[in-house]
């Protein structure tokens, strides 16, 4: 069955934002679709799990940090060749711990985003995010 005909998979995506506006991006590891592409961290929402619960779980599993608070920002659907996803973006400015690479992925704090390639679903959001991060620019 083609991805566009399937029910979208809900994915919790977190944007960790430092006081200066820098955000954390992770690089997809080998063995996953789009290996080497950069994205905001997150993962699939499990059955009986809220978006925020999934976000907190994924950040603990992937980065070893505890998200203390996060606010919903936007929701975007994207159809990839391998999956139809509904991405629920949350912005967190409060967390405990320093991000660690628990799944062998590279990650980087970015002001103006300088890493490439970006995951296709992420690209349209960068301009919106920049307006939020740098309102006077």
UniProtKB/TrEMBL annotation:
<dbReference type="GO" id="GO:0035539">
    <property type="term" value="F:8-oxo-7,8-dihydrodeoxyguanosine triphosphate pyrophosphatase activity"/>
</dbReference>
<dbReference type="InterPro" id="IPR047127">
    <property type="entry name" value="MutT-like"/>
</dbReference>
<dbReference type="GO" id="GO:0044716">
    <property type="term" value="F:8-oxo-GDP phosphatase activity"/>
</dbReference>
<dbReference type="InterPro" id="IPR020476">
    <property type="entry name" value="Nudix_hydrolase"/>
</dbReference>
<feature type="domain" description="Nudix hydrolase">
    <location>
        <begin position="7"/>
        <end position="132"/>
    </location>
</feature>
<keyword id="KW-0460">Magnesium</keyword>
<dbReference type="GO" id="GO:0046872">
    <property type="term" value="F:metal ion binding"/>
</dbReference>
<dbReference type="GO" id="GO:0006281">
    <property type="term" value="P:DNA repair"/>
</dbReference>
<dbReference type="InterPro" id="IPR000086">
    <property type="entry name" value="NUDIX_hydrolase_dom"/>
</dbReference>
<keyword id="KW-0227">DNA damage</keyword>
<protein>
    <recommendedName>
        <fullName>8-oxo-dGTP diphosphatase</fullName>
        <ecNumber>3.6.1.55</ecNumber>
    </recommendedName>
</protein>
<keyword id="KW-0479">Metal-binding</keyword>
<dbReference type="InterPro" id="IPR020084">
    <property type="entry name" value="NUDIX_hydrolase_CS"/>
</dbReference>
<keyword id="KW-0235">DNA replication</keyword>
<keyword id="KW-0234">DNA repair</keyword>
<keyword id="KW-0515">Mutator protein</keyword>
<dbReference type="GO" id="GO:0006260">
    <property type="term" value="P:DNA replication"/>
</dbReference>
<keyword id="KW-0378">Hydrolase</keyword>
<dbReference type="GO" id="GO:0044715">
    <property type="term" value="F:8-oxo-dGDP phosphatase activity"/>
</dbReference>
<comment type="similarity">
    <text>Belongs to the Nudix hydrolase family.</text>
</comment>
<dbReference type="Pfam" id="PF00293">
    <property type="entry name" value="NUDIX"/>
</dbReference>
<dbReference type="GO" id="GO:0008413">
    <property type="term" value="F:8-oxo-7,8-dihydroguanosine triphosphate pyrophosphatase activity"/>
</dbReference>
<dbReference type="InterPro" id="IPR015797">
    <property type="entry name" value="NUDIX_hydrolase-like_dom_sf"/>
</dbReference>
